[in-house]
């Protein structure tokens, strides 16, 4: 409304829009793109003379902007290695939690980490999964799978096939009585992010929930060298995006310095 525009302040944009998106691992370039779109809308409002009392120029120049946002932040989050993955699951299992009446909360968080790594599903979509989203199918060779259909980034349908044994283990640990309940409904997104923060400090490697997706994709690529398989795993529309994703993850063993220093004679 006109009242909202007249009273809109930079602090509102920062605290209610920019910061929450950053906390959900949205890239600065994406946030900046959203602000540009809003400023374009403001220009149309000014052109049509819809809200005469609102100073559109001031809004666009001083309020609907954040110069700290980067436009070249195409680099993805650090990838978690398989060794770090195991360490993190052990870290979660031993961690103390509130309301952990059955003493299983750590194991459930470890299961969440394993699930996100093996499916490549983003954290927000993962917490929206319900048991009813799983359907059971039989492959041509008779192998049974639990097919998971989940809406992920960009409102796209993402389908994953879990072995029946993996699904059963998930079900045994997390099912609480209703197919309409969220699979990870007992867990907290905020606690999950805090655990990543604490673990990152412990190992001196900055990781985030997105590191699971990056690490899984990188691991899958180095195991198979099949870029199309990784593209499908990440649910990318373009293989170019997948190539950028993979190539951003450096294998230290393949760098010149690592090769040369590994052959150094200390005698």
> What fraction, in percent, of the residue positions are helical?
40-55%
Structural class: mainly alpha
Mean of pLDDT: 85
CATH fold-level assignment of the largest domain: hpI Integrase, Chain A
Shape-level CATH architecture of the largest domain: Orthogonal Bundle
The sequence of SSEs as H and E is HHHHHHHEEEHHHHHH
What does this structure look like?
It is a single chain. The longest helix is centred in the N-terminal third of the chain and has 21 residues, at 28-48. With 267 residues, this protein is mainly alpha-helical. The mean pLDDT is 85. A hairpin with a 3-residue loop joins strand 2 (144-152) and strand 3. A 3-stranded antiparallel sheet has the order 1-2-3. It is 55% helix and 8% strand. The protein is globular.
